[in-house]
Amino acid sequence: MLDAINVKVKYKVRGSIVEALRGVSLRLDKPLLVTIMGPSGSGKTTLLKAIAGRVPYEGSIRVMGLEVKDNRREASRLVFYLPVGEVLIGDLTVNESIELASMSNHGYNVGDLLEWLGLSGLGNRRIIELSTGERRRVELAIALIKGQVIILIDEPTVGLDEDNARRVGELLKAASRQGRLIIAATHDPILLEYSDLVYGMRNGLLHKY
Ligand SMILES: Nc1ncnc2c1ncn2[C@@H]1O[C@H](COP(=O)(O)OP(=O)(O)O)[C@@H](O)[C@H]1O
Ligand SMILES: [Mg+2]
Predict the structure, then answer these.
(1) What CATH number does the domain containing 204 carry?
(2) Average pLDDT rounded to a whole number, residues 120-139
(3) Would you say 127 and 97 are in contact if contact means Cβ atoms under 8 Å apart?
(4) Mean per-residue pLDDT for 28-52?
(5) What residue stretches are annotated with the ABC transporter domain (predicted)?
(6) How far is the CA of 154 from the centre of ligand 2 (A)?
(7) Ligand 1 test: best mutation among 9, 11, 21, 206, most atoms within 8 Å of CB?
């Protein structure tokens, strides 16, 4: 599903060069929940962005056999990238947010999905009226509804208490069982309990955790 070989990403910052990825290889053949653990600045977000085709990279990243940098439009139908922070529009209701995402849908029964995520009663609530945990679950609903087979999630449990973090862990695991390859970047050890595979990231390099 994903085959990354010797991926390097460099950022230019005021004349100097930051090597954010220094030769990352990662091959994942099955729908699993995969966690990439690493300290801040180690390159986790950059790796997700490279797979999503959001930053230029050297080396090769193939998703379902397609080289991402040469096939960005096709790759975006295969890979969904959920960045940290505000991807939701505060003024919309939960239902409106889901409808917006559903335009490209999917195969999910939206009602069932919202129930499964524990959001059933919240359809008419505006995003700004939700807790952080509820918001995160709306984001997951959008990620799932969009239908891409590979879902990249940056810091899925950031800002959540332990109960909500566990809930997200369970949902991600369940989603992987429905045939999605889910790659989460995090430094939250709670997610390890739900992961099929864990990699460590340090100084732009990936290693066995
Ligand atoms: N847009 C950018 N421009 C310049 N340097 C960046 C940019 N994004 C990230 N970096 C640098 O690349 C390295 C890896 O960052 P990042 O991928 O965000 O790590 P993590 O997600 O693990 O915290 C860090 O040294 C960071 O400062
Ligand atoms: Mg990051």
Answers:
(1) 3.40.50.300
(2) 92
(3) yes
(4) 97
(5) 2-209
(6) 7
(7) 11
